[in-house]
Amino acid sequence: MIRREAHAKLNLTLAVLGRRADGFHELESWAVPIALTDELRFEAADDFRLIIEPHAAAPLANDASNLIHRAALALADAAGQAARVRIRLVKGIPIGGGLGGGSSDAAATLSALNELWNLNWSIDQLAAIGATLGSDVAFFLTGGQAVMRGRGEVLARARGWQGFAAVIVPPYGLSTTDVYRCHARRAEIARTDARSRSTASPWETRDIGADRLLPMLFNDLEAAAFEVEPRLAELHARLSRGGGRIVRMTGSGSCLFTLFDDESHAQAWCGKIEPVLATEERVKISRVLG
Predict the structure, then answer these.
(1) pLDDT for 130-182, tens place per residue?
(2) Selection from 98, 139, 132, 103 nearest residue 221 by Cα
(3) Where are the domains of the chain?
């Protein structure tokens, strides 16, 4: 049996720089892995089977649309063999929150099956398959903090910021397609903002604390996400007022986050905002990994 931990990620910055000829968006994003994980276990089998725990993790699909399923079949097809494996997924990363759980699971699947099937393929070979599955699969295959460019597949190592994140998880996800479509309607303002902010490179800062770093962070998709899901805009406003701290969105939403230098300050903030959270709104404290 082979085990893999698939880490979630946060987009500390996300600039949408325009639409490409291939229909994808040109991005520049400082992405960092965090300690929040899914767990995957892989065993040789006579056929393919994916088991998802807990069952309450619905609406995660357990069919050919699932990125684990797609990654396994894509690698098997590229290697010219059948996808003979039993995979058990234990979900820990919220679904549809912009934390990259699906892409991270796909990357873990490619890595584990490369070992289980004794393929000995390079990271570049696996990343080429990953690019057909999702723009940020390469980020999870490579590991560590990175600045993602292109549609997310062009990576440059970033200096590792160390600290903790409080991740706010709403009881709903957002459609990436809907958020980008809304962003397109706001394109002129969004492009202007992206051009001006893309000149800043907070990932190049050294030894900076969370309080100084937070004002440098941004996400060009926030306004569109708040328009698509007004409940998220209202949650963001409650957190900003009640917590007295800058809160940003990761990816295309719906999860929000803020940063701290140490876990005790993160815990204190979580206690401060507890009165403004609705029953199904949760907060997870997670270490930011280098």
Answers:
(1) 999 999 999 999 999 999 999 888 999 998 899 999 999 999 999 999 999 99
(2) 98
(3) 2-157, 163-288
Quick one: fold of 2-157? Ribosomal Protein S5; domain 2 (3.30.230)
Of 162, 138, 141, the residue nearest 149 (C-alpha): 138
Lookup: tokens for 272: 């401060």
Cβ neighbors of 226 (< 8 A, separation 6 or more) are 232, 233, 236
Q: What is the 3-state secondary structure (H, E, C) of the chain?
A: CEEEEEEEEEEEEEEEEEECCCCCEEEEEEEEEEEEEEEEEEEECCCEEEEEECHHHCCCCCCCCCHHHHHHHHHHHHHCCCCCEEEEEECCCCCCCCCCHHHHHHHHHHHHHHHHCCCCCCHHHHHHHHCCCCCCHHHHHHCCCEEEEECCCEEEECCCCCEEEEEEECCCCCCHHHHHHHHHHCHHHHHHHHHHHCCCCHHHCCCCCHHHHHHHCEECCHHHHHHHCHHHHHHHHHHHHHHCCCCEECCCCCCEEEEECCHHHHHHHHHHHHHHCCCCCEEEEEEECC
Is the domain defined by 163-288 classed in CATH 3.30.70.890? yes
What's this model's pTM, rounded to 2 decimal places? 0.93
* Residue given tokens 């970033």 in the structure block: 158
Q: Which two tokens stand for residue 121?
A: 């393929």
Q: Is 22 noted as a catalytic residue in this protein?
A: no
Q: What is the pLDDT of residue 25?
A: 80
Cα 3 off chain centre by = 21
Does 91 participate in catalysis according to the annotation?
no
Q: Which of 9, 38, 105, 220 is catalytic?
A: 9
Which one of 38, 105, 136, 220 is the catalytic residue? Answer: 136
